[in-house]
Amino acid sequence: MFTNMTVLSRQAFETAMDESLTVEEAVAYLEKQLQFRSLRNKIDRYSGGKTEKEVRTLLVSGLLQNHPEMKKDSVERRVRGWMNPKNTSTLYKKDAIEAAFLLGLNLRDADDFVALVCGEKLHYRNAEEIVYIYALNNGLSYTEAAALSKKMEDLLSGAKDSAVLQESDFTLNLRSEIEELHTEEELRAFLHENIGSIGHLHNQAYQLFMEMLSCLQNPVHETDSENLWQGEKEKLTVREVLREYLYENSIQSGKKKESASGKGKKKRTASPQDAAFITAVESEILKGWPDEFTLSKMQARKADITRKVLILLFIATDEGYDALREDYGPVPEVLHHKASRPYITDQDADGTPPDSENSGFRDDPYYDEDSEFDDYLPTRDEAFQDMRYRLDYMLTMSGFSPLDPRSGFDWLVLYSMCVEDIFEMDERMRSIFYTMFGKGEDEYAET
Questions:
Q1: Which residues contact 113 (CB under 8 A, 6 or more apart)?
Q2: Per-residue confidence at 168, pLDDT binned at 50, 70, 90?
Q3: Which of 165, 213, 376, 438 to pair with 289, CA 20 to 30 A apart?
């Protein structure tokens, strides 16, 4: 399980798996003990063994060459921020891509690096990113890639995102083609032929988002509704989904706490009982938490689906291993189908899913062809690993990085998944948010 984990990651993962860890102890661990992965640590991992001074010099000189309009003092200050060992923030994706060029990474390493420092992999269906992917794959510099993108901007401007997706609208179908492009003429011909199906947003993530949101908005199976309410199906609004499944009341309480503490600028590191300030981990958890407006924009394809939203919807809709044994209704099929689970091998046993193009799928450990699923009940650890692999696979398939036990939000998710019964997972999440932020309006009104 820990084959490719560092000592710190293994310690964080083992703590999340600790059956005796109470919610209060879990929050205290997040606040005081979890050692977040710094941005410098992520950069060093792909520096090719260079010293800190060498990396700084490389980044500063590269940024000045790429952006001659920038002042040296400003660039040096920016790089100092990146290399600050206490800086646990992420980079904007465009900066992460540029840093990959400066570090001299090949395409595969650049893909992993970008995912590590911004949470999102290179997007083979993003019109602008395709040019940079081509450049990385063919040894071009960042300035050459930027010039090529500028040269092709009229062609790239034809990209658009459709709300109606076809089988051909997913990355897997274009990735191999893009990686076979080796001349500017081939790139231009490819874009000209495919620009009508290339956009800017993540199609796989959007499909999963719509399926999972539909599950939450239509919680009663159609045949059940006919028996219960004379054919009238229950339909939840986006606002009701937020309140019922995405912990809106406690999150709103947390946002008020963040606002009162100076928009998150003052980070509390003392006792969790000191409610005057918000902690760094609380701020990380609140960052990008969806509201009614953002979810509605995602539905309308006016905003891209985020990694955090996919994780939250997965947790809200997942029915665990039992969903493979019985038909409970509209569960997103792609996440529960036997063939959607990656092999467990020594290489990916740290939770990193295999490359979907170069790997097969593992056999379900509980599946018996002769007697279907029998009456086998997985252990707590087996059920946890099953859910974790499916969640990691969903994230990777959608273009995002898998769960990282040294990320505050991801650690919270791992801890919440480590329960005896899947129905306890939601209660554990709510308890954590209650401990961090308070009940919020009407939260736990019946308790």
A1: 42, 45, 46, 96, 99, 100, 103, 105
A2: low
A3: 165
